[in-house]
Hints:
This protein has 224 residues and is mainly α. The chain contains eleven helices and no strands.
Amino acid sequence: MSSRSVIAFRAILQGMEQPIINRSIRQLSPEKTEAILNGAMQEFLACGYAATSMDRVAATAGVSKATIYSHFQDKEGLFNALIEQLVQKKFRSIFSSVDDRILQGDPKAALTQIANNVLDSGLGDAQYVSFMRLIMGESGRFPALARTFVRNIEVTACQFFEQYLREKAEDLKLIDPEATGRIFIGALVHYIIVQEMLHGKDIMPMDRDRLIKSLIFHICPNGI
Protein backbone atom coordinates (compact mmCIF):
# COMPACT_ATOMS: atom_id res chain seq x y z
CA MET A 1 0.00 0.00 0.00
CA SER A 2 1.44 3.38 -0.99
CA SER A 3 2.07 6.14 1.55
CA ARG A 4 -0.80 8.12 0.00
CA SER A 5 -3.19 5.20 0.53
CA VAL A 6 -1.99 4.72 4.09
CA ILE A 7 -2.75 8.39 4.83
CA ALA A 8 -6.22 8.01 3.27
CA PHE A 9 -6.76 4.82 5.26
CA ARG A 10 -5.83 6.53 8.53
CA ALA A 11 -8.22 9.35 7.65
CA ILE A 12 -11.03 6.79 7.43
CA LEU A 13 -10.18 5.50 10.89
CA GLN A 14 -10.06 9.05 12.25
CA GLY A 15 -13.47 9.74 10.80
CA MET A 16 -14.79 6.70 12.62
CA GLU A 17 -13.85 8.31 15.93
CA GLN A 18 -16.74 10.74 15.45
CA PRO A 19 -19.97 10.16 17.44
CA ILE A 20 -22.84 8.16 16.02
CA ILE A 21 -24.76 10.26 13.49
CA ASN A 22 -27.32 12.43 15.28
CA ARG A 23 -30.54 12.90 13.32
CA SER A 24 -32.00 15.30 15.87
CA ILE A 25 -31.74 19.06 16.16
CA ARG A 26 -31.33 18.50 19.86
CA GLN A 27 -27.92 17.10 20.77
CA LEU A 28 -27.58 14.40 23.41
CA SER A 29 -24.53 13.82 25.55
CA PRO A 30 -22.23 10.93 24.56
CA GLU A 31 -23.12 9.23 27.85
CA LYS A 32 -26.87 9.35 27.15
CA THR A 33 -26.37 8.23 23.55
CA GLU A 34 -24.29 5.29 24.78
CA ALA A 35 -26.95 4.42 27.36
CA ILE A 36 -29.65 4.36 24.67
CA LEU A 37 -27.56 2.21 22.33
CA ASN A 38 -26.64 -0.21 25.13
CA GLY A 39 -30.29 -0.46 26.16
CA ALA A 40 -31.34 -1.03 22.56
CA MET A 41 -28.72 -3.74 22.07
CA GLN A 42 -29.90 -5.50 25.22
CA GLU A 43 -33.54 -5.44 24.14
CA PHE A 44 -32.93 -6.38 20.50
CA LEU A 45 -30.84 -9.37 21.52
CA ALA A 46 -33.40 -10.47 24.13
CA CYS A 47 -36.58 -9.96 22.10
CA GLY A 48 -35.59 -9.77 18.42
CA TYR A 49 -36.18 -6.80 16.16
CA ALA A 50 -39.93 -7.17 15.62
CA ALA A 51 -40.82 -7.72 19.29
CA THR A 52 -38.65 -4.94 20.69
CA SER A 53 -40.61 -1.85 21.66
CA MET A 54 -39.32 1.66 22.14
CA ASP A 55 -40.98 1.60 25.57
CA ARG A 56 -38.75 -1.30 26.62
CA VAL A 57 -35.64 0.36 25.21
CA ALA A 58 -36.47 3.62 27.03
CA ALA A 59 -37.00 1.79 30.32
CA THR A 60 -33.76 -0.17 29.97
CA ALA A 61 -31.78 2.93 28.97
CA GLY A 62 -33.33 5.07 31.71
CA VAL A 63 -34.55 7.79 29.34
CA SER A 64 -37.89 8.91 27.98
CA LYS A 65 -39.31 7.42 24.81
CA ALA A 66 -39.55 10.97 23.39
CA THR A 67 -35.79 11.35 23.81
CA ILE A 68 -35.14 8.22 21.75
CA TYR A 69 -37.53 9.28 19.00
CA SER A 70 -36.07 12.78 18.83
CA HIS A 71 -32.55 11.39 18.53
CA PHE A 72 -33.05 8.34 16.29
CA GLN A 73 -36.46 8.98 14.64
CA ASP A 74 -37.77 5.41 14.87
CA LYS A 75 -36.85 1.82 15.68
CA GLU A 76 -35.17 1.26 12.32
CA GLY A 77 -33.06 4.38 12.85
CA LEU A 78 -32.05 3.09 16.27
CA PHE A 79 -31.10 -0.31 14.86
CA ASN A 80 -29.11 1.34 12.07
CA ALA A 81 -27.25 3.39 14.68
CA LEU A 82 -26.29 0.14 16.42
CA ILE A 83 -24.90 -1.16 13.13
CA GLU A 84 -22.94 2.06 12.67
CA GLN A 85 -21.54 1.76 16.18
CA LEU A 86 -20.56 -1.84 15.48
CA VAL A 87 -18.76 -0.79 12.30
CA GLN A 88 -16.80 1.87 14.18
CA LYS A 89 -15.72 -0.50 16.93
CA LYS A 90 -14.93 -3.48 14.72
CA PHE A 91 -13.12 -1.57 11.99
CA ARG A 92 -10.97 0.18 14.59
CA SER A 93 -10.21 -3.03 16.47
CA ILE A 94 -9.19 -4.81 13.26
CA PHE A 95 -7.18 -2.12 11.50
CA SER A 96 -6.02 0.47 14.05
CA SER A 97 -3.28 -1.80 15.38
CA VAL A 98 -1.85 -2.54 11.93
CA ASP A 99 1.42 -0.67 11.65
CA ASP A 100 1.85 1.54 8.57
CA ARG A 101 5.22 -0.07 7.85
CA ILE A 102 3.52 -3.47 7.66
CA LEU A 103 0.93 -2.14 5.22
CA GLN A 104 3.69 -0.76 3.00
CA GLY A 105 5.90 -3.84 3.33
CA ASP A 106 5.52 -7.59 2.99
CA PRO A 107 1.91 -8.48 1.98
CA LYS A 108 2.23 -11.82 3.74
CA ALA A 109 2.89 -10.14 7.09
CA ALA A 110 0.16 -7.53 6.59
CA LEU A 111 -2.51 -10.04 5.54
CA THR A 112 -1.58 -12.43 8.36
CA GLN A 113 -1.96 -9.70 10.99
CA ILE A 114 -5.25 -8.47 9.52
CA ALA A 115 -6.65 -12.03 9.30
CA ASN A 116 -5.76 -12.67 12.95
CA ASN A 117 -7.35 -9.34 13.94
CA VAL A 118 -10.56 -10.24 12.08
CA LEU A 119 -10.81 -13.60 13.83
CA ASP A 120 -9.91 -12.14 17.24
CA SER A 121 -12.57 -9.47 16.78
CA GLY A 122 -15.26 -11.94 15.76
CA LEU A 123 -14.49 -14.99 17.88
CA GLY A 124 -13.77 -13.08 21.08
CA ASP A 125 -16.97 -11.01 21.24
CA ALA A 126 -20.10 -12.89 22.31
CA GLN A 127 -22.31 -9.83 21.86
CA TYR A 128 -21.08 -9.35 18.28
CA VAL A 129 -21.82 -12.99 17.48
CA SER A 130 -25.32 -12.66 18.95
CA PHE A 131 -25.96 -9.45 17.01
CA MET A 132 -24.84 -11.12 13.79
CA ARG A 133 -27.24 -13.98 14.50
CA LEU A 134 -30.01 -11.42 15.01
CA ILE A 135 -29.33 -9.68 11.70
CA MET A 136 -29.19 -12.97 9.81
CA GLY A 137 -32.35 -14.20 11.49
CA GLU A 138 -34.30 -11.01 10.76
CA SER A 139 -32.99 -10.49 7.22
CA GLY A 140 -35.92 -12.32 5.64
CA ARG A 141 -38.59 -10.10 7.20
CA PHE A 142 -36.51 -6.92 7.32
CA PRO A 143 -34.16 -6.92 4.31
CA ALA A 144 -33.41 -3.20 4.73
CA LEU A 145 -31.64 -3.94 8.00
CA ALA A 146 -29.46 -6.58 6.38
CA ARG A 147 -28.64 -4.23 3.49
CA THR A 148 -27.58 -1.56 5.97
CA PHE A 149 -25.22 -4.05 7.60
CA VAL A 150 -23.73 -5.05 4.23
CA ARG A 151 -23.30 -1.42 3.15
CA ASN A 152 -21.57 -0.47 6.38
CA ILE A 153 -19.39 -3.47 7.17
CA GLU A 154 -18.95 -5.59 4.04
CA VAL A 155 -18.54 -2.69 1.61
CA THR A 156 -16.07 -0.90 3.90
CA ALA A 157 -13.93 -4.01 4.37
CA CYS A 158 -14.09 -5.05 0.72
CA GLN A 159 -13.12 -1.59 -0.50
CA PHE A 160 -10.09 -1.57 1.77
CA PHE A 161 -8.91 -5.00 0.63
CA GLU A 162 -9.58 -4.24 -3.02
CA GLN A 163 -7.47 -1.06 -2.77
CA TYR A 164 -4.70 -2.86 -0.89
CA LEU A 165 -4.55 -5.83 -3.26
CA ARG A 166 -4.84 -3.65 -6.35
CA GLU A 167 -1.66 -1.84 -5.33
CA LYS A 168 0.05 -5.18 -4.70
CA ALA A 169 -1.44 -6.89 -7.78
CA GLU A 170 1.65 -6.68 -9.96
CA ASP A 171 3.96 -8.14 -7.32
CA LEU A 172 1.44 -10.81 -6.36
CA LYS A 173 0.39 -11.48 -9.97
CA LEU A 174 -3.29 -11.14 -9.10
CA ILE A 175 -5.74 -11.40 -11.99
CA ASP A 176 -8.69 -9.95 -10.06
CA PRO A 177 -7.85 -8.05 -6.84
CA GLU A 178 -11.54 -7.40 -6.05
CA ALA A 179 -12.49 -11.08 -6.22
CA THR A 180 -9.36 -12.05 -4.29
CA GLY A 181 -10.27 -9.62 -1.52
CA ARG A 182 -13.78 -11.01 -1.29
CA ILE A 183 -12.45 -14.57 -1.12
CA PHE A 184 -10.09 -13.55 1.68
CA ILE A 185 -12.82 -11.83 3.70
CA GLY A 186 -15.41 -14.50 2.86
CA ALA A 187 -13.25 -17.32 4.17
CA LEU A 188 -12.73 -15.54 7.49
CA VAL A 189 -16.42 -14.65 7.85
CA HIS A 190 -17.41 -18.24 6.97
CA TYR A 191 -15.06 -19.50 9.66
CA ILE A 192 -16.68 -17.23 12.28
CA ILE A 193 -20.20 -18.17 11.16
CA VAL A 194 -19.63 -21.94 11.15
CA GLN A 195 -17.41 -22.15 14.23
CA GLU A 196 -19.29 -19.73 16.49
CA MET A 197 -22.70 -18.67 15.19
CA LEU A 198 -23.75 -22.14 14.05
CA HIS A 199 -21.91 -23.97 16.88
CA GLY A 200 -19.97 -26.08 14.38
CA LYS A 201 -16.53 -26.10 15.95
CA ASP A 202 -16.99 -29.70 17.16
CA ILE A 203 -18.50 -30.87 13.86
CA MET A 204 -16.09 -29.12 11.49
CA PRO A 205 -13.00 -28.31 13.57
CA MET A 206 -10.35 -26.21 11.86
CA ASP A 207 -7.29 -24.67 13.45
CA ARG A 208 -7.30 -20.95 12.72
CA ASP A 209 -3.57 -20.83 11.94
CA ARG A 210 -4.05 -23.53 9.36
CA LEU A 211 -6.81 -21.54 7.71
CA ILE A 212 -4.81 -18.30 7.68
CA LYS A 213 -1.65 -19.93 6.33
CA SER A 214 -3.64 -21.53 3.52
CA LEU A 215 -5.31 -18.22 2.63
CA ILE A 216 -1.99 -16.37 2.60
CA PHE A 217 -0.36 -19.08 0.49
CA HIS A 218 -3.04 -18.76 -2.21
CA ILE A 219 -2.53 -14.99 -2.35
CA CYS A 220 1.26 -15.02 -1.88
CA PRO A 221 2.34 -18.41 -3.33
CA ASN A 222 5.92 -17.26 -3.76
CA GLY A 223 6.21 -16.08 -0.19
CA ILE A 224 6.56 -12.43 -1.19
